[in-house]
Amino acid sequence: MGKDTDIDLMLRFGQGDETAFRSLYMTYRKKIINYCYRFFFDLGTAEELSQEVFMRVYKAGSRYRPEAEFSTWLFKIATHLCLNELRKKRYKNWFVSLDSEEGSVANQLADPSPEILAVMEGRERKKKITSAIRALPGKQRAAVLLREYHGFSYKEIAFQLGQSESSVKALIFRGRDHLKQTLCGEFGEGL
Predict the structure, then answer these.
(1) Interatomic CA distance for residues 38 and 2, integer angstroms
(2) What is residue 71's predicted lDDT score, i.e. its pLDDT?
(3) Which residue in 6, 28, 61, 184 has the fewest CB atoms around it within 10 Å?
(4) Which residues of the chain have pLDDT under 70?
(5) Could you tell me the sign of the dihedral formed by the alpha carbons of 30, 32, 35, 37, in that order?
């Protein structure tokens, strides 16, 4: 038996084949969690949204019509759920406590060996990048993440966001420009 395409698996699931759904779930679960995580930088939220994505895929089984690649359609669902969650404004005042594991600077400064300093610098760099991504407006954030982290084409992102390709190109350009300006200010021109 040859390898089924994702579209074939989804169509089979629509006809009642539960193993086809499980195969799609196993293939895409981590990718969807990663996408949602990069949107909110909160694993609990990413896992919740991922479950909601697959619940919607499950419910759409018999109604599914392949308008685009399965992964494009799947990430469209994930994008809309992330944008809706972002609109709830639960994440506007996100911060890391200095007492948390991530922010426990006092414990790390007790032994400032080169390895510890490198870890601290890496964490600080990651925090600044995370903060810069979080500062992007929702659709810019979605477009940049879909393009840079998941490799979707402009056409696929346009489908996922319900925008024209030229609008997507503008979103990505503005998002990249914002990140470049923000991060060059933080890390210098060597970024």
Answers:
(1) 34
(2) 93
(3) 184
(4) 1-4, 89-120, 186-191
(5) negative
Residues 45 and 82: their CA atoms lie apart, in Å, by: 10
User: In the listed set 93, 111, 144, which residue is the last one of a domain according to the structure?
Assistant: 93
How far apart CA 98 and CA 125 sit, in angstroms, is 16
pLDDT at 114: 64
- For residues 55 and 143, state if they share a domain: no
Q: Map the chain to HEC letters.
A: CCCCCHHHHHHHHHCCCHHHHHHHHHHHHHHHHHHHHHHHCCHHHHHHHHHHHHHHHHHCHHHCCCCCCHHHHHHHHHHHHHHHHHHCCCCCCCCCCCCCCCCCHHHHHCCCCHHHHHHHHHHHHHHHHHHHHHCCCHHHHHHHHHHHHCCCCHHHHHHHHCCCHHHHHHHHHHHHHHHHHHHHHHHCCCC
The C-alpha R_g of the chain, in whole angstroms, comes to 19
Domain count, the chain: 2
Give this prediction's pTM.
0.72
- Structure token pair of residue 34: 């990663």
In a domain, 110, yes or no: no
Domain that holds residue 62: 1-93
